[in-house]
Amino acid sequence: MKRKTAKEILAESFREIAEAKPIDRITVKDVTENCGYSTATFYRQFRDKYDLIAWAYSRDLEKILDRIAFDETSWMQTLLDAAMYYHVHREYLANLLLNTNGYDSFIRNMTEINTNSLTRKILQAAKSDRLSEETEMPIRIYCCGSVYLTCEWILGKYGAEPSKLSEIYALSLPEPLKQYLHEK
């Protein structure tokens, strides 16, 4: 049986509170009191609540991307899994976008996390430790565009179902990246 780490417990506590309270009003004390930890424990794990948010999102995204087997079927399933993640956590993510110190900061952070995660997956598929600019730039464009679209979708600008959102992600994948994500 795997026990949850302090980071996981603190992240769950934060999400639980965020279901009922705007994120900009959640304090570290709120988080620690909710799960029975001390603020010292919190600060041993995270710099602040924004560090917790980034860690939790990054961890969730990595879990989704870890299922890629580098073929078109698994890539499509990964995109659907990502869209379902955004759908399931839509209220929480909207709370993050609307009630943090900067919508643009959140988008930049989310873009960096997505870019780093996708880069690692492509490096793994390429069996390399470095990518060319011709590969790095399309990764950046894809992540910038898909994150911005996702944020607009989370906030209700688009009413597409998760399956349709995942199709849009797939159609938007730049051609140079397909060779790394669709290998058989």
Q: Secondary-structure map with pairings?
A:
Elements: H1 6-18, H2 28-35, H3 39-45, H4 49-65, H5 72-88, H6 90-98, H7 103-126, H8 133-154, H9 162-172, H10 175-181
Helix pairs in contact: 1-2, 1-4, 4-7, 5-9, 7-8
Separate helix tally: 10
Mean pLDDT, all residues: 91
Compressed to H and E, one letter per element, the order equals: HHHHHHHHHH
Low-confidence stretches: none
Largest sheet: none
Helix amount, in percent?
over 70%
**What class do helices, strands and sheet pairing give?**
mainly alpha
Distance between the termini: 35 Å
SS strand fraction:
under 5%
Rounded to the nearest angstrom, the radius of gyration is 17 Å
Give the total of beta strands: 0
Shape: globular
Explain this structure.
This protein has 10 helices and no strands. The chain is mostly helical and 184 residues long. The chain is globular. The relative contact order is 0.12.
